[in-house]
Write a structure and sequence with these properties.
With about 450 residues, this protein is mainly beta. The chain has six helices and 24 strands. β14 and β15 form a beta hairpin.
Length: about 450
Amino acid sequence: MERPENARWERLLSIARDTMDNRPVLTSEYAHAMGNALGNFQEYWDEIYSHPRMLGGFIWEWADEGIEAHPQPLPEGGESKASPLGRNGGAPFIAYGGDFGDYPNLKAFCIKGIVDSYRNTTPKYEEVKQVYAPIWFQMNNGRVEVKKYDPHFDLNTINIKEESRNGYRYVTASLKEATSWAPKGHVIARSQFADATAPKAKSPKIKENRGKEKDSSLFTLHSSLFSLHAFRAPTDNDKGFGNWIAKDWKQQGLDNLRDSIVNDTTHIYKTANGQIRMTVSIVKEKDSSLFTLHSSLIPEGQLPPLPCLGITLKLPKQLQNIEYFGRGPWDNYPDRHAAALVDIYKSTVSEQYFHYPRPQDSGNHDDVQWLKITDDKGHGWLIESLPSGGAGVGFSFSALPYSVQQLYNATHDYELKEEDCVWLNLDCAVMGLGNSSCGPGVLTKYAIPQRPHILRLRFTPL
């Protein structure tokens, strides 16, 4: 018997493909759900379904194992510690290794479930639910067909609903009747297909002459308002067993970039062994309140794999309302798309960040065509993707009440304080999540290639 837990995926496949061996391959701890995780989970199951000897595997694990605690008052000159539930006071938080003065410990290594310590679901839970669905859909000559992964699943127990909108056909399978494990209407699986006959997604309506008002300092853009976005608060996968890539980011200085100004539109951000050249040009369209932004981002020298590449804009705090056409409703990354369909979603800035016990990057949305961010009166910005001459149109964004640095420096969620602004990150490239906290890192196709990248956006005041 082989013990393939923590083995690289290629090794598991080589076992399954060995023609001199007929043993089934069941993987232990093949996906480690620590923090913001479960990248390339769909790829795991594409491979499992592709080979009859691959039986599946065990996710490590179902639930976070944090302990609800209350912070003690900070003694003068001492370190703050946690106390068990119900003692002292302060807002409750999820404690992990070391919070009770315990030593040695593995810190947040007990926080590795697809549901949290209270058994609430998470974005990674939604990914598992979609990938583990017993059925799947395919489009054949304009008709949706239902296929079964599980030969024992009874298709008569579900309703299939099709909707056409936003250039897609959306398909949902839900339970006809309540069962012992789920209520009537519980969604089993969802999917979408590009549909040329479906109504196209409409951009939000623009108020005529908006942005020409005298009291509207909000509606002025210039290149100095933008800074480079090339670092994220490391996820648990980024830190990994060997602190693999987060350590490289720190050693190269990505966590504390300083720029040198070349001219009004170009900045160079130096790292230990390389640099990132950022050029931002903004043109106000003639006889219009619209702005076109063109940003060139060029990584140069010996750089580690970058977590993201784009620009950051610091916006007034009153811009709390979000509507966008892209992947959602929960956050998603290039290697975690199965459960995040492209649609029009509404949310708020405060709802964008998922609160992991140990703060880390969260809130990203991919394949975005347009984003509207406004105050309660509907004033703000419409940001639309423009063709850049690359492989596709679309951008990624996150809009958070916390800066990257605050997330990076905090060790517990209760330390986070909403800031007096909105941090809007607009990216032309984002690295996936991978499984490196206990397994494979980010697959090459989900890494950011070191070449020039272009971001082109239209900003329209609302």
